[in-house]
Amino acid sequence: MYVSACSDGGGAVSGRRRPLRVVHCFRSPVGGIFRHVRDLCEAQAAAGYEIGIVCDSTTGGAFEDRLFEAIADKLALGVVRTPMQRHVGPGDLSAAWRTLRIIRRMKPDILHGHGAKGGAYARLFGTALRATGRRVVRLYAPHGGSLHYDADALSGRAFFMLEALMGRMTDHIFFVSEYENRAYKEKVGVPHAPASLIYNGLRPEEFVSIANASDAADFLYVGMMRDLKGPDLFIEALKETERRTGRTLSAKLVGDGDDRPKYMEQTSRLGLSDRVTFLPAMPAREAFALGRIMVVPSRAEAMPYVVLEALAAGKPLIATAVGGVPEILGVDSPALAAPSVSSLADRMVLALADEEAYRKLMPSEDVLRSRFSVSRMAERIEAVYQEALATALPR
């Protein structure tokens, strides 16, 4: 996609045509948001866009560094990482000023913000650039983000008020699940901007089953080491499943995060250290071979990639019925659990009773392919880009 080029990156149109410049802004380069952005960057670069990424420099590790290296040559505007704190605080002022200067140098036509912090920056800075005469489209994808807060809590009400205010600085909102769409309407209000429901997607090559390793554990967790994702629930449920079945069970937990030491201490306290292994983050398909049955014990989600990736790889799984997970597995799926120790243990006992029968309860490959496609996701987002750019005016 091409746009009319401007002689100074601002007002007067020179008559030339140049590639569309898209900057993806988000805070933490880990997990599903980072996977989503990488997929979009690859598809958009292949379509001829000039792409840039602005994100936090204090999260992620060696694994994420390798992922950046894998896409670096596709990003004409580069990757710029700068400190961004998760919570609102005094440091936001200096972080926001640094980020605004970075984005201004990239001269974007489209600012695509992901998550609460990235969405706030994209909309605030896009509006600031418009005030200087630049024609910038401001897009927002919550990916759960602030929508995970409790509507009855003071912090939640404050975030939802800010979301409502920034809604008037938004040209389009992308929701990755119907759950996220409903949550926004219930907690923030009907979007002021146009909105689209566009599911996350999988690549064709991901639909290849992965065999279990010879030393595969009974159960497997893959994800960030933070309470929101529920590793603590999984560890407790493993102990409860042992009690109910009378079996000694093993598990592997793959992922990085500040709360890992807490989960390791929990494992030791429950007497599970000899059969529960913690491993650093690695490619999901590599991790899938390490356990026979996946468990996704999240307390909150938007549309988790790890569920899609595991199913495409032929893994039977247990997942909590939060966010968009029921939209993947089906609302009546016996694989769905409540985010509680007892409910997770119920499903873990069920899966162990007849693993082959349990595997057949998963959605079919045809169903997954028809609903969750990277190419379809990128095409629909590109259509929104074109429509939003055509109607964007400096403010």
Automatic annotation (TrEMBL):
MF annotations from Gene Ontology: glycosyltransferase activity
Glycosyltransferase subfamily 4-like N-terminal domain residues: 31-201
Xref: Pfam families: Glyco_trans_1_4 (PF13692), Glyco_trans_4_4 (PF13579)
PANTHER family linked to this entry: GLYCOSYLTRANSFERASE
Name the record gives this protein: Glycosyltransferase family 4 protein
Organism whose genome encodes this protein: Chelativorans petroleitrophicus
